[in-house]
Amino acid sequence: MKIYSSVEEFKNVNNPVVTTGTFDGVHLGHQKIISRLKDVAKDTGGETVLLTFYPHPRMVLFPDDNELKLLSTQKEKLELLEKYGVQHLIIHPFTKEFSRLTSIEFVRNILVNQLKTKKLVIGYNHHFGRNREGSFDHLKEYGPLYGFEVEEIPAQDVDQIEVSSTKIRNALQIGDISTATIYSGHPYSLTGTVVGGKKIGKAIGYPTANILISDTYKLIPLDGVYAVKVKHNNIVYNGMLNIGNNPTVAGKDRSVEVNIFDFDNDIYEQEISIYFVERMRNEEKFSGLEALKLQLAKDKENAIRITNT
């Protein structure tokens, strides 16, 4: 996958078949668009092009919106888009100036003059341009004027429910990992750096890696105990993860800690990725460390069963 940091960098691509959007989480609906993009490119001898933006438009337009949480960091999104077969990825800077482009200016200046679009494939109810004024109807009108075709892909349904990034976020915020995984088409993940902790887990036989998630916009699921997969240096392990403030030991700050099974390496300051499999229980306050230790033994047994299924 070739990556461009602006539309101006993108040149000399044969018969580009284009889609555009934020593609947060690269869920089943996004995958459906990419699949169609690849089919059209194959049939027409073209190449697939995905135009996305950074920062996320809401970060620029509503900088004080502390409620915005995203399913994927920039790095995670790139990895997923490459996995699903995008050939050319343009990450154009989203600025307030760019947001003021009218729909006709976006089509003429970006899609036609810069990208030389031959066919545009968009998702259901896609909007673009200043105040999201542009729509599929606008594109059908502009296409013949500027020499490109446009195709709208229906929303992806799962059990007759339309998949969306918002529905996946809502599922994660209530700990519904199963729904989030089904709608995403892949496990939800967190990637971060292992930092020092209080070492209480190690003292009771369940050492944990404390994970610092540096991207403040990344959505962290509901507090609780989860069965997870853990990837370190491209090797995948089973584990159990706690999200919360560790009430048994009077913790104050929210933390993300994982106990990696059959693993005894020093990984401080190294990056690991967590893949959520299932939420097992709420975080609880126990009477003491011995009671917590007994519960962790049950959690580990449960997590082993879940992750080996």
In short:
This protein has ten helices and 14 strands. It is of the alpha/beta class and 309 residues long. It has a six-stranded parallel β-sheet with strand order 1-4-3-2-5-6, sandwiched between helices. A six-stranded antiparallel barrel has the order 9-10-13-12-11-14. A two-stranded antiparallel sheet has the order 7-8.
Attribute tags:
309 residues; Elongation Factor Tu (Ef-tu), domain 3; Rossmann fold; 10 helices; six-stranded parallel β-sheet; alpha/beta; single chain; 32% helix
Overall residue-averaged pLDDT value: 93
Query: Going across the major beta sheet, what is the strand order?
Result: 1-4-3-2-5-6
* Second rung of CATH, namely the architecture of the largest domain: 3-Layer(aba) Sandwich
Number of helices: 10
Overall CATH class of the largest domain: Alpha Beta
Give a verbal description of the structure:
The chain is α/β, with parallel strands linked by helices. The chain contains 10 helices and 14 strands. A 6-stranded parallel sheet has the order 1-4-3-2-5-6, with helices on both faces. Strands 9-10-13-12-11-14 form a 6-stranded antiparallel beta barrel. Strands 7-8 form a two-stranded antiparallel ribbon. Helix 5 crosses helix 6 (136-146) and helix 7 (165-173) packs antiparallel against helix 8 (177-184). The chain is elongated and about 75 Å long. The two termini are 34 Å apart. The mean pLDDT is 93.
List the helices and strands and how they pair.
Elements: E1 2-4, E2 16-20, H1 28-44, E3 47-54, H2 57-61, H3 74-83, E4 88-93, H4 96-99, H5 103-114, E5 119-123, H6 136-146, E6 149-153, E7 157-158, E8 161-162, H7 165-173, H8 177-184, E9 189-195, H9 200-203, E10 209-212, E11 224-232, E12 235-244, E13 255-260, E14 271-281, H10 289-307
Parallel strand pairs: 1-4, 2-3, 2-5, 3-4, 5-6
Antiparallel strand pairs: 7-8, 9-10, 9-14, 10-13, 11-12, 11-14, 12-13
